[in-house]
Amino acid sequence: MTTIGDVAKAAGVSRSTVSYALSGNRPISRETRERIDAAISELGFTVNAGARALATSQTMVLGLLLQFHEDEFPPAMLQYILAVSDAARELGYDILMVTDGDGPGAIRRITSSNMVDGVVLLDVTHDDPRLEALRQARQPGALVGLPRDTEGLDVFDLDFGEAARLIVDHLYGLGHHDIVLVSPPRHVFERGGAYAWRFRDAALERAARYGIRIHAHYGESQQPGIERSLNAILDTRTDATALIVHNDASIAALPGVLRERGTVVPRDLSVVSLYSRDFGRTFLLPYTAVETSPDGLGRKAVQHLVRRIAEPAYGPPVVGFIEPELTDRGSTA
């Protein structure tokens, strides 16, 4: 079995330096850390979690808190779960996924019992009831999603307002003046999913500046409601020349709906959306879209959280936005 001494010898450092690198108890140089990481990878060294917990009071486990709502589209949430778990694994951490409906109680339970070294929150709402419990915890936390009050928290999200402006600018530049917007379901707005109204309101504001019309409709998240809703919207807005879809379930179903209607994109209707590259490949989506970057957001949140675990005094809280990027796949004209 490979030991910490073997790692130290391969990296050309002392055993204590390897220990510091693993525990984060003392700062070491980037070059030294990279040599140690390379030696660990080459030798296949695995730290005994129990021994580390006793020696450093660290569990090497991150809590991942989320809720699976029956009325939501599971593949969308799965993108973020995979991103967080992959980033954590790369940094030597395991994930404790908690789906307890009592979010504040779950945070208090896993932090007060020292089950985790830090917490990642997904599915963050505008007035998220979990935030106060997270602020009171000894362990640091990171959010994927923007709440109303970010005080004392590290927050990472897509700039949904800028994404909306980017899309409206794109369509206006092509001469579109009558546009349909399919938003997330009504229940997402009612639950406090701020990303939904951040995008919708920015799109409406931008359109008003240009003097163009955007007709905003709630979409659905489950069949058969998804296809029924899309057909009803398209039947109502027959004069629209462009469709913006900010709804993962709806954009996944849209190719089949348009095929059944005999609608050819972009000859009959321009289509633009928001989704990740992986999501697009999964559902064979051919549409011009803003990259939603679940992998980038999950990675940033985990990396920042692990840095805070290693260095509790590391800088002030961060609110970081990923700038939207529009990929033109030829579905607008």
Automatic annotation (TrEMBL):
It comes from the Bacteria. InterPro entries: HTH_LacI, LacI/GalR-like_sensor, Lambda_DNA-bd_dom_sf, Peripla_BP_I. One of its GO terms (molecular function) is transcription cis-regulatory region binding. Coiled coil: none annotated. Gene3D superfamilies: 3.40.50.2300, lambda repressor-like DNA-binding domains. The keyword Transcription regulation applies. SMART domains: HTH_LACI. Keywords: DNA-binding, Transcription, Transcription regulation. Residues 2-56 form the HTH lacI-type domain. PANTHER family: LACI-RELATED TRANSCRIPTIONAL REPRESSOR, LACTOSE OPERON REPRESSOR. This is LacI family transcriptional regulator.
